[in-house]
Amino acid sequence: MTLLHLEAVTKTVPLPDAAPLTILHGIDLEVSSGDRLSIVGRSGSGKSTLLNLLGLLDSPSTGTLTFDGRPAKKFSSAERDRVRGRDIGFIFQQFNLLQGRTARENVMTPLLYATGKQFWKRSTLAAEMLERVGLGHRIDTMPEKLSGGEQQRVAIARALVRGPRLILADEPTGALDVETGASVMALLDDVALSTGAALVTITHDPAIADLASRHLLLDHGRLSTVRDDGRPNDLVAVSRRLPHAPQPAASEIGHSGVAQGVGA
Fold first, then answer.
1. Is 236 left (phi over 0), alpha (psi -120 to 50) or beta?
2. Phi and psi for 162 in degrees, rounded to 5?
3. In a structure prediction context, what are the per-residue pLDDT tens digits for the chain, which is 264 residues long?
4. Which family is this protein grouped under (predicted)?
5. Cβ atoms within 10 Å, residue 190
6. What is the DSSP string of the chain?
7. Domain that holds residue 112
8. The CATH number of the domain where 175 resides is what?
9. Secondary structure (DSSP) of 156-206
10. What total of structural domains would you count in the chain?
């Protein structure tokens, strides 16, 4: 089942005292239930801008983006919020945990906006998800008492507690050591496989990208398929040949969308 479909999508943002900057050029992409795909690209290639579109945090300048068969441009602001909260789980490099709140309380946060059973059983559901990510013994621990890998596992549990159909992981291991990062990615992969969710990992690290079964390359805002059979050496070689994409100086950025999209 197709969750996301992008056709000829572009993203252009205004710059003060300069011509508009086009970050994404003619993006064609289809993401279906159960997909495990990686999007790799150097700094400035437009990865974060693409993530914002996939997560319905932003809208294309031109082209079409549909979620679950419905054009995203027809969603109201409230509908976008509901879809993001119910169907999309976000995992970032920075854990963004609430200080002064236990692991369980952090994982419960998305359930505060749920309805019915998920709301009334939020404490139990949070504890069960922490158990699933191997932190059942740490449910009442504060974030500052957790290691980096444990904090990322709490963030993963928080992203997955509502059973999203699409998991978007933006540099999810960037703040972790190699061994812990591999463990976190294995966990994400296992959860995605067991639930049938689509897992999209956006990264600059070919080694992390190789863990997916479908590899895409974002180069200067243009998306292309590297391989669909999981052979890693091709992705590594292509990525290493890429020059760094040019970026505007910070003083040139006058739009919040650019601050998120350029240079990531």
1. alpha
2. -95, 5
3. 899 999 999 999 999 989 999 999 999 999 999 999 999 988 888 998 999 999 999 999 999 999 999 999 999 999 999 999 899 999 988 888 999 999 999 999 999 888 888 888 999 999 999 998 889 999 999 999 999 999 999 999 999 899 899 999 998 888 888 888 888 888 888 888 888 899 999 987 778 888 888 999 999 999 998 866 545 444 444 444 444 444 433 333 333 333 333 334
4. Belongs to the ABC transporter superfamily.
5. 12
6. -EEEEEEEEEEEEEETTEEEEEEEEEEEEEEETT-EEEEE--TTSSHHHHHHHHTTSS--SEEEEEETTEEGGG--HHHHHHHHHHHEEEEESS--PPTTS-HHHHHHGGGGG--HHHHHTHHHHHHHHHHHTT-GGGTT--GGGS-HHHHHHHHHHHHHTT--SEEEEESTTTTS-HHHHHHHHHHHHHHHHHHT-EEEEEES-HHHHTTSSEEEEEETTEEEEEESS--HHHHHHHHHHPPPPP---GGG--SHHHHHHTT-
7. 2-261
8. 3.40.50.300
9. HHHHHTT--SEEEEESTTTTS-HHHHHHHHHHHHHHHHHHT-EEEEEES-H
10. 1
For residue 201, the one-letter residue type is T
Question: Of how many residues is the chain composed?
Answer: 264
